[in-house]
Amino acid sequence: MIPNNLPAPTALNGLVLAGGKSSRMGIPKDTMNWHGKEQRYRVADLLAALCHDVYISCRPDQKEDIDPAYGALPDIFPDMGPLGGILSAFNVQKDVAWLVVACDMPLLDEKALDFLVRSRNPASIATTFESPVDGLPEPLVTIWEPGSYPLLLNFVHSGPASPRKFLMQHRISILKPEHPDTLVNVNTPEEADQIREMLKRNRNPE
């Protein structure tokens, strides 16, 4: 819960990062089907329960492939990876916070996202999870507050940058995930096979 002495939070929008080229996977990660629908739409549906507006961040050439029932938000900051998607979202709406989620975390669920939203600290520039892999901030399941936008612009103008490096350099709120497996991302066919086996066991316990 947010302490009473903190500023009132701004509206919260959702952003699904689906513009990656999936070079290691070999097929688009955003269209992989783990739970009955393409992952980009599943994540968007999860965010819709928690956010005011939800958009799918994509490359301009992907826009026509996205179901018109979902809002597509093409990158206007090319060749910046996830940061380009985040900056493009703020360019559309600067006065809201953005709950940004990558499309390559098939175990991420509504409980984890609800925990993040309930733990949101609007006095920080971001509220995020601690990665179970290395203990560093997980930038691709993060609430980015409006105050992060000008800082992000300065950050990218200073040279090659990553959202994780940005978070490590600024005042943020970082949470330990209740279930670390929910933050596992999938980048290769081998990792995908492991997740399929895990999901199969969970659905058909002995």
Ends distance = 38 Å
Using only C-alpha atoms, the radius of gyration works out to 16 Å
If helices are DSSP runs of H or I spanning 4 or more residues, what is the number of helices? Answer: 6
Output the CATH topology: Spore Coat Polysaccharide Biosynthesis Protein SpsA, Chain A
Helix content: 25-40%
CATH-level-4 superfamily name:
Spore Coat Polysaccharide Biosynthesis Protein SpsA, Chain A
Question: What structural class do you assign from the helix and strand content?
Answer: alpha/beta
Q: Taking all residues together, what is the mean pLDDT?
A: 88
Assembly level = single chain
CATH class: Alpha Beta
The global form is globular
Major β-sheet annotation: 7 strands, mixed
Q: How do the strands line up in the largest sheet?
A: 3-2-1-4-6-5-7
- Helix-strand string: EHEEHEHEEHHEH
Strand content: 15-25%
By DSSP, the count of extended strands is 7
Tell me the count of domains: 1
Give the low-confidence spans.
none
* Annotated CATH architecture: Alpha-Beta Complex
